[in-house]
Structures are given as C-alpha cells and as structure tokens.
C-alpha cells in the first residue's frame, strides 16, 4: 500500500485531506503478533481515531490548533497477519515513502516491535539520531523465548543500530538482570521510575539534534491506562506524561518522528485509555510539528 492512497476509514480530528501541504503524516501500525501476555493492540489505532472526537482541536497547553499545523491521516498499514518479519518490512517501506516526501512520521501502534522498522528508516535519513524512549519496560532483550522478533526486543535492536549512547530511557520499572547489565555496557542513558525531571536535564544536551520519540502507553500507571497488553504498576500519571511532551515541544531538539504504542482497547471498558492516547497524539502533533 502506498501511504498517500485514499483512506476510507475514520480519521483523527483536524486531519487535512491535502497531503502535499501537510507537514506530518499520521498512520496506524495494527500489529500484535508477538505480544507476550494479552493481545489486542492491533485495534489501538482505529479506536484512538474514534476517541479523538471527544477532544477539542485546540490545545490550551500549547495554545495551538490542529488546523495550524496541517497533517495527513494515512490510515492503517495493511500488514501481513501473524507474520512479524514481513510486517516489519511493510512498515519500513511505508515509512520510507513518508520520509522521501520530507514529512514527519507520527505512528500509532500496535505492539512496540513496530517502532523498530520506523527508527531503522529514520536513522538512514538522520545519522545523528537520538531516541527518547518512555515505557514501563526496558525492551532490551535480545530475544523472548528464542524469538528475536518480539515486543520485548525493539530497543535492543535500536541501540545496536544507532549506538547505546544515543538511546535515552525514561520511566522503566520492569526489566531483567541482563537488561540492567546491558544498559551499562552499551552506554544507554537510563532513568528508571522517573520521567519529567531527568528529561528536563537531558533535553539541553540534545539541542539541535534530530530526535525520535517512542512512547509505550504502559509508562503510565495502570490506574491511568489499564487498556494495554502488559500493564506495569508504579507508573507515572497522565499529567506527568503530558508535561514531558510539552517539555520536548518547548526544547531545542528537532523531533523527526514519533509514535505511541501498546494501546489495547478491549481491556478498558471505561475507554479512558484510548481517550488518553488520543489526547497524547494531539499534543504530540501540536508540540512536535513546528
């Protein structure tokens, strides 16, 4: 599928139908082929779009409106069901088209493995790339039960590609002993448990650099976002995550891509998880697209 083909489904609020004039492209990666606990994240992108209708197009935080930035909703990538290796290739091909037109890719997952092929493409365009990772889990395993294509492995793959010194992890509160050791040997900037304070310390050191932002919804405490495949107690609040997004938006880094992943709507009958996710996407669009 070409990303600029007409999308007949629901679109995120404020989306433009003019691709050429748009600065960013929003797209879904409906994949949950490798999740280790609860499936269902493939339904995340569609439900986030539907939930966006509850929000205003104007952000009082950033004093901007979605119509000011012009972004295009390309819909969901039609992935090879149950085939992670082929799906990764399809995501990479899709994102490469977005980058070729000088648009900023903003993705919605989907399990966290989907971030790997996106960063692989973004790093080709921006060799000095840094990745800021917000998550309840480190995702630094080399494999999960022998499977190298797993939602537990994307940050390991990314660190191998761009160098651990260019990876910054925030909010992590669940990892193996081996992952802890790897953060040290690889030189990863690792900030467990907390997010906003260490982020504010890091951002000035990244001024002027291209940065990719990846957010797993389970960086939030399950009280704030129960609709996810692998909930992890002890997380941050929604306000802390929004404040972190705004800190990035007001910094001097150049956000060249971003994603929000692991929303599994079936586990949250209150729908606060996709509603929260939609607000996060709105703030990312308004804050990261200059």
Automatic annotation (TrEMBL):
Q: Which gene encodes it?
A: speB
Cofactor-binding details, from the entry: Binds 2 manganese ions per subunit.
Key word Acetylation present? no
Name of protein:
Agmatinase
Binding-site residues for Mn(2+), renumbered to this chain: 112, 135, 137, 139, 216, 218
Q: Which cofactor does it need?
A: Mn(2+)
Q: Source species, please?
A: Shimazuella alba
Question: InterPro entries this protein is in?
Answer: Agmatinase-rel, Ureohydrolase, Ureohydrolase_dom_sf, Ureohydrolase_Mn_BS
Any idea of its EC number? Answer: 3.5.3.11
Give the keywords, sorted: Hydrolase, Manganese, Metal-binding
**GO biological process entries:** putrescine biosynthetic process from arginine, via agmatine
Indicate the family of this protein.
Belongs to the arginase family. Agmatinase subfamily.
Which Pfam families does the UniProt entry name for this protein? Arginase (PF00491)
Q: Which molecular function term from Gene Ontology is one that the record holds?
A: metal ion binding
**Top-level lineage group:** Bacteria
EC class of the enzyme, as a word? hydrolase
């Amino acid at each position: 599928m070409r990303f600029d083909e007409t999308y007949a489904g629901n679109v995120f609020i404020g989306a433009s139908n003019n691709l050429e004039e748009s600065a960013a492209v929003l797209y879904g990666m409906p994949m949950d082929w490798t999740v280790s606990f609860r499936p269902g994240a493939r339904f995340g992108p569609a439900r986030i779009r539907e939930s966006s209708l509850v929000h205003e197009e104007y952000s009082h935080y950033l004093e901007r409106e979605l119509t000011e930035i012009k972004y295009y909703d390309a819909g969901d990538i039609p992935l090879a069901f149950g085939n992670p290796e082929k799906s990764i290739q399809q995501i990479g091909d899709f994102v490469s088209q977005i980058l070729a037109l000088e648009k900023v890719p903003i993705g919605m997952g989907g399990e966290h493995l989907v971030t790997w092929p996106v960063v692989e493409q973004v790093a080709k365009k921006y060799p000095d790339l840094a990745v800021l990772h917000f998550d309840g889990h480190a995702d630094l395993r080399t494999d999960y039960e022998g499977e190298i294509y797993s939602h537990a492995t994307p940050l390991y793959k990314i660190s191998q590609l761009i160098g651990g010194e260019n990876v910054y992890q925030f909010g992590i509160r669940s990892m193996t002993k081996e992952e802890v050791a790897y953060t040290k040997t690889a030189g990863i900037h690792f900030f467990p448990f907390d997010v906003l304070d260490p982020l504010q310390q890091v951002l000035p050191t990244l001024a002027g650099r291209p940065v990719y932002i990846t957010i797993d919804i389970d960086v939030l405490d399950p009280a704030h976002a129960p609709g996810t495949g692998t909930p992890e107690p002890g997380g941050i609040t929604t306000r802390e995550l929004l404040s972190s997004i705004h800190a990035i938006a007001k910094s001097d880094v150049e956000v060249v891509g971003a994603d929000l992943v692991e929303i599994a709507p079936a586990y949250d009958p209150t729908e606060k998880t996709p509603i929260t996710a939609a607000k996060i996407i709105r703030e990312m669009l308004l804050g990261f697209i200059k």
